[in-house]
Amino acid sequence: MSDRAVSQAESAAPPARRLLEVDNLHVEFRTRDGVAKVLNGVTYHVDAGETLAVLGESGSGKSVTAQAIMGILDSPPAVITGGQIRFQGRDMLSMTAEQRRLIRGEGIAMIFQDALSALNPVFTVGFQIAEQFRVRRGMGRAEAKKRAIEMLDLVKIPNAKQRVNEYPHQFSGGMRQRVMIAMALALDPQVLIADEPTTALDVTVQAQIMDLLAEIQRERRMGLILITHDLGVVADVADRIAVMYAGRIVEEAHVHELYEKPLHPYTRGLLASIPRIDEKGQELRPIPGLPPSLMRIPPGCPFHPRCAMAQPVCQEKVPPLLQLSPTRSSACHFAEELANRD
Ligand code: SF4
Questions:
Q1: What is the whole-number distance in angstroms between the Cα of residue 91 and the centre of ligand 1?
Q2: 160-167 — which CB contacts under 8 Å span 24+ positions?
Q3: Ligand 1 midpoint to CA 335 (Å)
Q4: What pLDDT digit, counting tens, does each position of 3-62 carry?
Q5: DSSP of 254-276, one letter per residue?
Q6: 228: helix, strand or coil
Q7: Is 300 within 8 Å of 316 (Cβ atoms)?
Q8: pTM (predicted TM-score)
Q9: SS3 label, residue 95
């Protein structure tokens, strides 16, 4: 096909189906010690067939956003004070508990970083997977077990027919994470949220799990939200990246744009602090300082105490998330200047 024909075909392609939207979400944790402003206007979305990586240090709000989407925030102390979460255009925050329960698993499912504590040690993995088919699909025991074996096959657990009868402690860390993925996928969700799914695993197993998630995401055309603090993990699998800091999105871009030219000093700092094989001998430059306490977020740009580019305006005005192109946005007063630099 000629370039022109390719571009015509691309422009004729239907727009991707928007599955999930988080819109200006605010969450506070009201504790005896004070109010922590944990999310301060988080906005992102994921479409069918794409992977959005949500990246940030501990405490940036990545997991809290995911818990708010799933409706599993501990409340109290968590209170959603503003914003919307829409699944296929429907506002989830105004749904009944039963409506949300039905979306969990079939619409949106989640896998957690610590598979051992997420699995029940006293039941076989087969029982735990099959339970979803029994409870949510009304299947009998034998049929549900057969489906559990199929799910273990899907996540490439060898000898699934035998292993379906084993307990979580009989699986290695990587295999347990595969079981968690099988459980999350059992009801064929349209959106999968993976919260640091490989953190507890060694590097080789990490790569295998990421490959598996990417393969299943492509095959099922799911929307995948991959939460991580590790830029290295997302380079090969994400389509877009949203970077979070102090409960806000500070930069969003297609993955290659973000790696080539980050337009927020925090993202630049994250990239400078990871080792690169094409820059042998270069010193790693960690970001100085620590993320702010969410009970005392600095005025203006919350990153200003750590930012080498900070100017007086940064201490006074909160930078809005500025849309710089259809695919890029940055919450920095100097984003346009950074975009125009070579
Ligand atoms: Fe740094 Fe100022 Fe941009 Fe914040 S607004 S990231 S402090 S330059």
A1: 33
A2: 163/125, 163/126, 164/124, 164/125, 164/126, 164/129, 165/124, 165/126, 166/124, 166/125, 166/126, 167/121, 167/122, 167/123, 167/124, 167/125
A3: 9
A4: 444 444 444 555 679 999 999 999 999 999 999 999 999 999 999 999 999 999 888 999
A5: EHHHHHH---SHHHHHHHHTS--
A6: strand
A7: yes
A8: 0.90
A9: coil
